[in-house]
Amino acid sequence: MKILAHRGYWRDAREKNTLAAFDRAWSGGYGIETDLRDIDGSIVVCHDLPDRGALSFANFLQAYAARGGATPLALNIKADGLQQAVAHQLSRYNAEDYFFFDMSVPDSLSYLRAGMPVYARLSEYEPHTPLHEKAAGVWLDAFEREWWNLDLVRSLRAQTKAVVIVSPELHGRSHQGVWNALRGLTPTTDTGLLLCTDFPEDAEQFFT
User: Fold this and answer.
1) What is the DSSP string of 75-132?
2) CATH classification (class only), 2-207
3) Residue-level pLDDT, tens digit, the chain, 208 residues
4) Which of 106, 119, 187, 202 is deepest in the core (most CB within 10 A)?
């Protein structure tokens, strides 16, 4: 199982989506989940509406190439129409292990047509997706309750879909029950299975 640090490995909420949090994650060998938007024609790393002080995607990728290049990137696309600019930056910094998720369906199709890896989200509100067959993986979310089970995860992996499980603390719930259940997966060494969490170091210790 690979671990994705949600908006970096932050210890204070003010560190989310900052180079300090990303560096800490890369130092631990963790992947990154982060958010991309645009402002004034540039791509920036930002979950909410950006300002001109937001970290540029280019600077993020420069740091990634220097310190985290062997770890995966989960890129949450927060605005339509970024595909060409994002692809250019990823190519410029030789990034290889990445995927995109959470775009609108029309925007997702532009990524898929360009041969870029897209993960389709499943949740209690989206138990099916028309993009499933085309998607390289699944972003397995649970906003209010744990609606999925290990059989679903096994079924998706049998379809050769990568699966990212969103840890419940991202939605304000305890993670312990889900983490305990995930120990029932065989093998937990499956690199096509990922966990997106606010507690990457705890997760590494728990699943090791």
Assistant:
1) EEE-STT-HHHHHHHHHHTT--SEEEES--HHHHHHHHHTT--EEEEEBTTBS--TTT
2) alpha beta
3) 999 999 999 999 999 999 999 999 999 999 999 999 999 889 999 998 878 889 999 999 999 999 988 899 999 999 999 999 999 999 999 999 999 999 999 999 999 999 999 999 999 999 998 899 999 999 999 999 999 999 999 999 999 999 999 999 999 999 999 999 999 887 778 899 999 999 999 999 999 8
4) 119
What residues have CB less than 8 Å from 119, skipping those under 6 apart?
74, 99, 100, 101, 135, 136, 137, 138, 139, 162, 164
From CA 35, how far away is CA 102, in angstroms rounded? 10
Name beta bridge partners: 165.
140, 195
Tokens of 52: 């001109």
